[in-house]
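[step 3/7] fold_predict: job queued, chain A
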Amino acid sequence: MGIMSWAGLWFGLSIPVIVALYLFKRKYLDTVVPSHFLWNRVLRNIEANRPWQKLQNRLLLWLQLLVAALLVFALMGPYIFVQGGSKHTVIVVDTSASMDAVWTENAEAGAHQVNRLDQVKEQMRSMVDTLGRGSEITLLKLSSQPEVILSRESDRDSWNKAIDGLQVQFGQAAYRESLSLAAALTKEDPDASVVIFSDEQWNERSDDIHFDVPVKVVSTYQEKVSNLAIEQFGVKSGLTDGSQGAVTGVAVARNYGNTTMETTLDLYGDGQLLASKGITIASGQSATVSFEGLAQAEVYRLAVETEDDYAPDNMAFAFLEHGGAPSILLISSGNLFLEKALQLTGSEVTRMDTSASDDDINNDDIPIVPKTKPDIIVVDGKLPSYFAQGEWADLLKKTPLWSLGGDGKEIQLTNGDIKTSTHPVTRYLSIKDSPVASLIDEKIPSWASPIMSIGGIPAMYAGMEEGNARLTFLFELTAGDLPLRPEFPILVNNAVEWLNSGKAAGLGRMNAGAQVEIPVDAEAVEGAWIPVDGYALENGAPSVAAENNGEQISSKQKAPEIPGLWRFELKGIEKAVLSGYYLEVSANRLESNINGEKSLQISGNGANEENAVRTPYSFVYWIALLVLIVILVEWGVYQRGRSI
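[step 4/7] structure written:
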């Protein structure tokens, strides 16, 4: 029970006043006496007005004291917390990848284990069972984007059905967006409250989102956890002739648990065990492990032998590129930084000088198309006019192309805010401010999408045009300081790897649910994602149909939602099997840190309080009703003359 205002105690001074009135009250005794005693009236009046007489036990006195005490108690505003007292409850349920971690109920007693989301479901069912009649629920799922499952729903069967249907989402989690939506849904709603079910392993700020209503966090976090994650894994062949024993594998493993872990890493090639290495990693530390002399294989799998509390990061896959170093034709008037960065990728770079103007070149001076088709063409600056026709135009159409700068009206940037989309070209980049002052005003083709914007204006876009990769920078390197930045070699390496990905056995690694570019065969009429290995296969993930763009298979596909090794299979007319591509789908790497110790912080009225979800229920009205009843009883007592 609580008190809203202790100032109401001042009105308690009325109680001694009532008692004092009874102490000073004239008291008469009706007595039959002979008439010659009438002279004693004066003496009786003197006795009746004598103060501090003995306080007699009178019912009317006690009733008046009770009324005064009840009124004082009502003025103090007494209340109690009522579970589920709010009419509208907004439930935010965390379904991010870390909710797939094991939750052990009463671990010391060896009780059963479920994942954290299953435990949350039990907690949610227990909470909604306590809600009163007429209560409404809004169920908000925290996943790659906020998703409203129920909106002010009062049907209990619908509540339980929605709770049963919740599943873990392994992609990027929209933490701030979900909280902001919950705050907006309850703004200026005095009958609402918010309950957040989560393991509190959030990778974004939450304390700057203000709530106007009570908020409570129900946590499934456990202090003792174990998780060894494979953060990076790759293979590379040192020879170009496909010799056996020429493959090297490198992996980075990190211990996200709170105890030292000792385990073995097993490396498989096409399902066959190739090597094993034991490792010991302290809590919070990482280790780099190398494997030498591996046999050639199409797909390599690295697995943690010991089971831990979070399975999605216990396996990683890698694909061996074929054909050796890519050959690049650099069409440029001269850019030493770009040429050196391309060479650092291990590529064979051939530069074609375009410093001569179109007026200085006649038909006889047009360069001859190279006999060997390059793997990638890089165009630095404006492309000469003779590339728009003949054999050169045909070569550009059929070859992965990277364009930097070119013709077009320039737009001056008003601010340097950079927004980067998830794409293989932009991975591992941390560009904070704009490298240029202006961008080329160019309409983005329908087959492409922006991968970097500066000041809200597209600066880079990429896509697949007729099965060939296309990458465009809407600025020239010489117009800014990008070549001088430490991120430039990483950016060039990412670009070369992505443009040359068509030669690889796989498409690399992508987060669950992310967009992936796939070179789709023009004859393909049917496609699907098939689980091949890893977490997806172990958990019985179903096949996922490919997305269509009208009557054709789209080159932009959404990666499957469950981590593991998937194969994108294409079929032509009469079910003829066409080219296929492997893709490693991974859970969001930040979710591997299931040992985060920072609790979820919420700002606002009643936030983070133990009783926040319970609503104060006032007794004032019930006390007022009781006072009225007592007054009626008091009036009856007075009417019967029992106060004398």
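[step 5/7] annotate
Residues 620-639 form the longest helix (20 residues).
The chain has eleven helices and 38 strands.
exit 0
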